[in-house]
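quick one
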Amino acid sequence: MKEQNTYEWGEGVFTLLSWFKKDKVKNARVLVVGAGALGNEVVKDLALFGVGHIYVVDFDRIELSNLTRSVLFREADAYSHSYKAEIVAKRAMEINPQIKAMSIVGNLFSEVGFGLYRMVDVVIGCLDSRIARYQLNRLCMRAGKSWVDGSIENMTGSVQVYTPGLSCYECGLSRDEFNHIMVRTGCADVVNLQSSAGRVATTPISASIIGAIEVQEAMKIIHLDTEGASQFKTLQGKLLHYEGLTNRTNVYKFSTWKNNCPAHERWEPVIEGPNLSAKRTVSETLSTLKSLLNVNNVEINMCNNKFIDRIVSDKPEKEFKVMIPDSQLDNYMSSNDELRKLRYVTIFHKSFYENIDVDFPYQDLTLQQIGIPLFDVLHVSTEKGLFHVELSEDAALFL
Ligand SMILES: [Zn+2]
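structure w/ zinc ion:
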């Protein structure tokens, strides 16, 4: 038996596979969005393969009902209400101590820096709602990254791979599906009651099969050559459907790429801001941006979040100072007795900021405090036009 410190993961095992490129896998960065049933299976397989850097995103906590199909969760995790992402990342490193798995507890759209989407080789979606898929697709298209989408229900499941220029989730939505998403994400100034997503019944079998195929597709993307060509048949622009009831598996062509789809807007070029961090204040950031871009006027346009300073209830008319990002408002209101009771009987209106310039009244707050995550890319309007500027000082936190 080899000494523990000289053993390299997969040596003499994966290295026997003609296609397996050890260095590519070891250096690969994969973002896994969702740490439920599929996320558990996906991260387990990525760890077994020895994928060097895994980032796991989820805002949810573990419940007892999750244990039936989540291989990395234990009963004690449910009793301690641990965060799914944290446990998944921790267990992945127990399976394979030679990899690095990092958790991000938060919303995929508003609380994960766009720099991370740009940094990874491939994104794997392990999601259970259309809105989350719609948002993830927007980010991946902006970053120019392929993303693997898995979905499971009962004994069936499907996997699709969306690749910029070839296939796009938003292009494939029907009018009804699109309208449904718009209704749920649309109303910016009214506080919505966050309804829990309709839970679908799944089995550990569907999760294993679909999660495994998602990872296999991600491995193919990691092994693409520099021209983007593959030695394998990939699911890029295709849909794989698995029916457990009949054991039937079909692959269909699914390459919808329409003109004028708003999701295809690519954010490039991105200018690196080595002295920019979400830990810095608004006023510091505005002045750093002015000198970096050599302009007189800068305005940061928050695209995925807002800063709420007050909310106002209708009946009785009453104002509450909250001072938090929109993404945290729902949690905040649930944990405040007065607000929690009121929200069932009245509507709340938000007073918010999404364009941040010298007139923003809370200049001493940090970017994180107003809802801009670490390692994000800022959308900046100036007299010379639009710029995309990365909070590059934060990159070190994700290496
Ligand atoms: Zn599209």
